[in-house]
Write a structure and sequence with these properties.
The protein has 8 helices and 5 strands; from the N terminus they run βααβααβαααβαβ. It is an alpha/beta fold. It has one domain: 5'-nuclease (Rossmann fold, 3-Layer(aba) Sandwich), CATH 3.40.50. Strands 3-2-1-4-5 form a 5-stranded parallel β-sheet. The two termini are 16 Å apart.
Length: 152
């Protein structure tokens, strides 16, 4: 079974903008090595970018190669299924230093059983993995793995 991954927008942006080593990860995804799960909020964020050509390229990548797009309603349905108070969980994660835009990725990674959340964000995600997982477990949901692209 393919590993299920969420790729933070920063990783995809660097791959498309700079065409560095992260581009290898993009090629691995295009070849079907992973099942990429994409929160719809990433596409919403891209729609607000000023640099439209790059935003369109990245959005197209997510739309074509995602095995699943997660909507806000999907998240609410799943948190109901797990009897999770979404706002309480959201606040607890922000309180330990997770940026608001990253909280959604963390929650999705947990409740949708994602194998890896891939990000460059060491300060607000990677370095806080232990604290994040304590909050997730306390709320009765699965711990997650947060990795940088080179770890995949």
């Amino acid at each position: 079974m393919k590993k299920r991954i969420i790729i933070d927008l920063d990783v995809v942006t660097v791959a498309f903008w700079d065409k560095k080593d992260e581009a290898k990860l993009i090629e691995r995804i295009k070849s079907g090595k992973f099942a990429m799960v994409t929160p719809y909020i990433i596409l919403e964020h891209l729609s607000k970018w000023n640099y439209q050509k790059l935003a369109d390229e990245i959005a197209s990548f997510y739309e074509i190669y995602s095995s699943q797009l997660i909507t806000a309603q999907n998240i609410l349905d799943k948190t109901d299924e797990f009897h999770i108070e979404y706002k309480k969980l959201f606040t607890e994660l922000v309180d330990i230093g997770v940026k608001e835009e990253d909280v959604v990725l963390v929650i999705i990674a947990s409740i949708f059983d994602i194998d890896y959340l891939i990000t460059f964000n060491r300060k607000h995600l990677k370095s806080k993995e232990k604290e994040i997982n304590e909050v997730l477990r306390k709320n009765g949901i699965k711990a997650i793995r947060i990795i940088v692209p080179s770890e995949l």
